[in-house]
Amino acid sequence: MTNADHILRLSGISKSFGEKVALKHVDLDVRRGEVHVICGENGAGKSTLMNILAGIHQPTAGTLILNGREVVISDPIEASRLGIGMVHQHFALVPSMSVSENVFLGRNLRKWGVFADKAAMVARTRELIARYNFRLDPEATVGTLSVGQRQRVEILKALAFNAELLILDEPTAVLTPPEVDELIGVIAGLREMGRTILFITHKLREVKAVSDRVTVIRHGESVATHETGSVSEADIARDMVGRNVFLVGRGNEQARRPFGPTVLKLSNVSMTDSAGRLLLKNISLEVRAGEILGIAGVDGNGQTELSEAIAGLREIQAGFIELGGRTITEASVPERQSAGMGFVPEDRLDRGLSKTMSVAENLAVSNYRRAGLKRGGYVDQDRLEAFAAEKIREYDIRGAVPESPVSTLSGGNMQKVVIARELYRDPDLLVVCQPTRGVDVGASEFIYARIMAAADRGRAVLLISSELSEIFALSDRIGVMYSGQLLRIIERKDADEVIVGALMNGSLEAAA
Amino acid sequence: MTAARFKNSVRAMYAPIASILLTLALGFLLVMAITDDPLQAYRDLLFANFDSLGSFALFLNRATPLTLIALGVIFSFRAGIFNVGGEGQLYAGAIAATVIGVTFAGLPAIVLLPLALMGGILAGAFLGWVPGVLKVRLAVDEVVTTLMLNIIVLLFTSYLSNQVIRDTKSYGAVSEMVPEKIWLPALPGVPGATSGIVVAVLLAFATWVVLFRTVWGAQLRASGTNLRFANAVGIPADQRIIVAMLIAGGLGGLAGVLYVLGIGHRFEQNFSPEYGLVGLTCALLARIHPIGALATAIFYAMMINGSAYMQISTDVPRSLVDLLTGLLVLLMTARLATPKTRS
């Protein structure tokens, strides 16, 4: 294969943000006229890679070869000049303007060099729409269009300026299933006209549906590139999730002691968003004392909503939640806390911590009374400091002093702060989400040990993770979520990666 | 207090002091270009305030409202609310105290004084409460609401002082005097200076204690720094935010009350030389730390008051203060940004 067949070649692309390494030596080659999918879990580095191609970020190392020439994409304007068109996940459209005005926004066709030539823009847009068979009205106001139609306007924007290489960043994330089908048709049409398309997604079904080839990215590294026809969804899933060595876990052979009574019970829990889309569909589950129930699934299939429903941060529209035999469906967060709930949210910086507040204050925030840190309304500074120092020792929170802001800690140590705080109450139920995301191996082991110790003390643990190795290492039973449903709960001893992987793709038959 | 904690408190003072010194140094270069006697100009700008008790009193009278408004801003900012309504809250407090004082002039001082005080504080608090509730319940942008309320209050007080409680025997749009029995005593030893400054200083320390030494303050700061976190750990964040706005408005209102009772003794239309805005600046320069804000408010009062003397004795215009303000803001924000670029 000669260079001429490649429109784009990346070699050894690395990118770090401060100490955080987002991409490590990523290689990618894209053939002219193909639909190439970049596939990976959330946080794997897909979007960073695309932002490098779009000129938004500059790589720390590595070379970019476009049409056989090494290029530096200094900014988005340069990217567009080089024939790279980007369609972002979040659209950049002006709702009050028409389709044609949006297409030519900032690049108005002009009459006499001064006035915006509306007629010419409409005509040119109509021509583009016809050529690509887009089914859009060039004079419609963008605000009145559906999400799928708006996305086509975005694609049109890129095409209007002769983008050879079109990048679609998670284009299906915002679409309904029929819109996805339509988009897949649009993409096929574009390929026939000789455009090259880079399509980013973490949904396996789409990979098979649209692509010629697929490159999998995991933890910032390009793992493999396959001809899509020659691999199964399960193969891709394995590449995405990785067959990491299992960290020390509970193992799969242990004869489990009988579990205690049911601690957490969900009956037919359903949740819809404001637009009426179903986020959780009839979820029922039970977690018993001493048991770890693992919930696996590709990110974005309702796990976040499930955890927030249990923690009391989102309302559910149907069903009941019981904790220790008491109904807590309507209970506030503090009420759930005193009923015995601990909650480790999936994103520590989003819900787990206040970055600018001190380590001590983050540890104490929901424990002032229980830990005896207050006298009247006042905080006893000496006790607060002693409490924090003790937790720092106990959880080996490295580099932490009680007064230092949490933002000075590394990801793993931040996570330990969250875990230490939530476990301080020794809750009957621990809901723990993505406990080791972005956490180094040492800290992960420590966190696993704490979670298992809680279960061994007879606490119920609901573990939500998209890291299969973690689910397998810790769980007594494994449930899989797919598009808002809890597909099946299997005993750990009956589960293997093939079954769980298939369930993660939503294929019940394969798992049967 | 351990050494580490003491160091933290001192560190809060570094930023404003270093920036102030640098600003003055740069400003001095400028003054050198304008006048033959830059030393005289600078001496007047900073130290003319201490030449006579009268000048010193004027300086204290400016520092009082600035400090109180800055403290209010700190409460709201710590709760995550960008409250720019200091000016309106100040005017609301001033007009409420005046109306009460004038209307119920017959009541004995022991009743009237607390009544005027509470009335002014509540009027300010109300102005804080409205944007607070709108923000929490309906997610209405507080910058818009507080700014708009400023205008409403300014125009409304202007109407009242011109049409309703105007002292027709005086020149200008001023209200009748509040009865002398509820005037605040002058600061002992400094005739003409309001004893309100004592209140302001005490409240600066009280603010520090509330924000940094109580569970309530910790919850307030948690709500302000990361609302989603506060919700997840079970802090009643909405309530904290609304109460913070009540306090913020109340402090602005108190600034107005103390102005009327201690300095002006009546409501004067446009009595504030943008105290609301300058108080906001003071709070931001002190990185929304109450003790730091006391320092920046005092510094600002010194400059604003001193510039008048400077203009009289040298040919440096008093608008130099605006320039120095700009420089100071520039330097402070530059300082704030450095940790970001490093990360």
List the helices and strands and how they pair.
The complex is a heterodimer of chains A (512) and B (343).
Chain A: E1 6-17, E2 20-31, E3 35-39, H1 46-53, E4 61-66, E5 69-70, H2 76-81, E6 84-87, H3 99-103, E7 110-111, E8 115-116, H4 118-132, H5 147-160, E9 165-169, H6 177-192, E10 196-201, H7 204-210, E11 213-218, E12 221-227, H8 233-241, E13 262-272, E14 278-288, E15 292-296, H9 303-311, E16 318-323, E17 326-327, H10 333-338, E18 341-344, H11 348-352, H12 359-364, E19 374-375, E20 378-379, H13 381-394, H14 411-424, E21 429-433, H15 441-456, E22 460-464, H16 468-474, E23 477-482, E24 485-491, H17 497-504, H18 508-511
Parallel strand pairs in A: 3-10, 3-11, 6-9, 9-10, 15-22, 15-23, 18-21, 21-22
Antiparallel strand pairs in A: 1-2, 1-4, 4-5, 7-8, 11-12, 13-14, 13-16, 16-17, 19-20, 23-24
Helix pairs in contact in A: 8-17, 14-15
Chain B: H1 3-34, H2 38-47, H3 53-78, H4 86-103, H5 109-138, H6 142-164, E1 186-187, E2 190-194, H7 196-213, H8 215-225, H9 227-232, H10 237-264, H11 275-285, H12 290-313, H13 320-342
Antiparallel strand pairs in B: 1-2
Helix pairs in contact in B: 1-2, 1-12, 1-13, 2-12, 3-7, 3-10, 3-11, 3-12, 4-5, 4-6, 4-10, 4-11, 5-6, 5-10, 7-8, 7-12, 8-10, 11-12
